[in-house]
């Protein structure tokens, strides 16, 4: 399957490796999706060529690269020292770029939310569409924000597909949005705000914005590129107009995608090490250092920046709020716990790659689990699990959640494991290698 093609709809099931004993593995995790795609956007708007070292190469990052190429940026591959592919050299979109183009968003939230404001800065029509489920993901706040900013949109009914008819400039100014469905609405506007003639005063009004770590990440990468951002008032951001400076940056490993591997230590009572763990990061995956001990793990960050997680053989349930994109991994671990768990502050997961709350309830229940959906999360109670099919709904994090269960429960079969290619095409091989460290499968 090409990285850009839609995830296959034909049903194929992957026998998840079952670990006969404790795993003992060191796993080098590919680069962060959220950082790679933010740096790609900034590089396309910068004042000169930028280099991304050891970036992510996955479906979501390729969709972003292709989107930027369509808008006129040049993205070249350069030999680098990354384990999982070349560096990227990005030459920005030229000021006189114009013409009608189309962008395939796949199922990537970062592409469908971040690229339309960028397209508004260019003269020409850019049409956006994506996978069938992409048409169901919330887009309203980005679309209404562009309209408020005076940008013309065509064929839009509040979701994909639609067309942005850019004129080459956006005046900017004051904008009020409701970003309660996704932090990406805020990030999308902040990322391009410095290129609006008057900059941007953005305010959120409504229920709380989810995934605040991801907004902190956006602000941090903007400041690295010399953009002046004031985020001192909650729910309010000021981006000064100005230059986005070209940069040369090494991308951190994806700490969210490290999650399933770290979870394997708990699921099997083993040890997993992830090297190159950043000591200072805006990634939400930094929270593993506090989440995993609450679930019963011993966690240590060594002097050589390796995160070491040891399972004690017992997983304890926990009350955890605002786990954002970590939630499917957390839910899988909680289903293996000896005591109940409550996950809250994740109602917006209903608008992710699939309705993740419904999907987790359906699939964990199918394996014998006891899970209930609440207004803004899940309650998970201890129950003996058994093998069987685990449906994934084109959602990479459903697939990795199923793999965690399969490590601890014999006979779990995961639908369409290739869906992990959205952010980590190497997942099936890395997971098999991890499971193999537990010895040949059999009963524990
Ligand atoms: O900006 C980003 O890179 C992301 C923001 C979050 O989106 P939501 O705010 O919609 O949860 C997160 O869940 C998603 O995986 C990546
Ligand atoms: C919600 C996610 O992705 P997206 O960037 O497509 O929103 C995710 O990766 O968990």
From TrEMBL:
Class of enzymatic activity (EC top level): transferase
The EC number(s) this enzyme carries: 2.5.1.19
Keyword Amino-acid biosynthesis appears in the UniProt entry: yes
Keywords: Amino-acid biosynthesis, Aromatic amino acid biosynthesis, Cytoplasm, Transferase
Transferase recorded as keyword: yes
Any one GO molecular function term: 3-phosphoshikimate 1-carboxyvinyltransferase activity
Binding site for phosphoenolpyruvate: 33, 109, 137, 184, 356, 397, 422
InterPro entries: Enolpyruvate_Tfrase_dom (IPR001986), Enolpyruvate_Tfrase_sf (IPR036968), EPSP_synthase (IPR006264), EPSP_synthase_CS (IPR023193), RNA3'P_cycl/enolpyr_Trfase_a/b (IPR013792)
Active site: 325 (proton acceptor)
UniProt cross-references to CDD domains, sorted A to Z: EPSP_synthase (cd01556)
Catalyses which reaction(s): 3-phosphoshikimate + phosphoenolpyruvate = 5-O-(1-carboxyvinyl)-3-phosphoshikimate + phosphate
UniProt main location, coarse: cytoplasm
One Pfam short name: EPSP_synthase
Residue ranges occupied by any Enolpyruvate transferase domain in the UniProt entry: 21-429
Pathway: Metabolic intermediate biosynthesis; chorismate biosynthesis; chorismate from D-erythrose 4-phosphate and phosphoenolpyruvate: step 6/7
Subcellular location per the Swiss-Prot or TrEMBL entry: Cytoplasm
Binding site for 3-phosphoshikimate: 33-34, 38, 182-184, 211, 325, 352
PANTHER family recorded: AROM/DEHYDROQUINATE SYNTHASE, PENTAFUNCTIONAL AROM POLYPEPTIDE
Function: Catalyzes the transfer of the enolpyruvyl moiety of phosphoenolpyruvate (PEP) to the 5-hydroxyl of shikimate-3-phosphate (S3P) to produce enolpyruvyl shikimate-3-phosphate and inorganic phosphate.
Family under the similarity heading: Belongs to the EPSP synthase family.
Quaternary state and interactors: Monomer.
Protein name: 3-phosphoshikimate 1-carboxyvinyltransferase
Organism classification: Bacteria, Bacillati, Actinomycetota, Actinomycetes, Micrococcales
């Amino acid at each position: 399957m090409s990285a850009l093609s839609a995830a296959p709809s034909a049903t194929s099931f992957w026998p998840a490796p079952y670990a006969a004993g404790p795993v003992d593995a060191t796993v080098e995790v590919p680069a962060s999706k959220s950082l790679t795609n933010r740096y790609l956007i900034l590089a396309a708007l910068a004042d000169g060529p930028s280099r991304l070292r050891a970036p992510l190469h996955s479906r979501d990052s390729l969709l972003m690269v292709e989107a930027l190429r369509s808008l006129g940026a040049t993205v070249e591959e350069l030999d680098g020292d990354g384990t999982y592919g070349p560096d990227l050299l990005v030459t920005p979109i030229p000021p006189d770029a114009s013409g009608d183009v189309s962008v395939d968003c796949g199922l990537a939230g970062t592409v469908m939310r971040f690229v339309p404001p960028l397209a508004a800065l260019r003269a020409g029509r850019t049409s956006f569409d994506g996978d069938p489920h992409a048409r169901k993901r919330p887009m309203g706040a980005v679309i209404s924000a562009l309209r408020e900013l005076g940008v013309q949109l065509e064929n839009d009914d509040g979701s994909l597909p639609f067309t942005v008819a850019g004129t080459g400039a956006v005046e900017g100014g004051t904008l009020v949005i409701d970003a309660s469905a996704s932090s990406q609405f805020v990030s999308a506007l902040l990322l391009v705000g410095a290129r609006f003639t008057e900059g941007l005063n953005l305010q959120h009004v409504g229920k709380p914005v989810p995934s605040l770590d991801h907004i902190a990440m956006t602000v941090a990468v903007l400041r690295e590129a010399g953009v002046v951002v004031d985020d001192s008032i909650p729910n309010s951001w000021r981006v000064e107009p100005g230059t986005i400076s070209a940069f040369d940056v090494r991308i951190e490993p994806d700490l969210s995608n490290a999650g399933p591997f770290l979870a394997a230590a708990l699921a099997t009572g083993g040890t997993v090490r992830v090297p190159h763990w950043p000591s200072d990061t805006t990634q939400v995956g930094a929270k593993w250092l506090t989440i995993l001990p609450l679930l019963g793990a011993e966690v240590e960050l060594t002097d050589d920046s390796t995160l070491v997680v040891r399972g004690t053989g017992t997983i304890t349930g926990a009350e955890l709020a605002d786990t954002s994109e970590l939630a499917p991994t957390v839910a899988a671990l909680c289903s293996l716990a000896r005591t109940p768990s409550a996950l809250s502050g994740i109602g917006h997961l209903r608008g992710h790659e699939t309705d993740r709350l419904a999907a987790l309830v359906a699939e964990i229940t199918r394996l014998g689990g006891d899970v209930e959906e609440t207004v803004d999360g899940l309650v998970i109670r201890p129950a003996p699990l058994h093998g069987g099919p685990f449906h994934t709904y084109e959602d990479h994090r459903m697939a990795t959640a199923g793999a965690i269960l399969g490590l601890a429960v014999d006979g779990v079969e995961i639908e369409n494991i290739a869906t992990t290619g959205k952010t980590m095409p190497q997942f099936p091989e890395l997971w098999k290698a991890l499971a193999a460290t537990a010895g040949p499968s059999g009963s524990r």
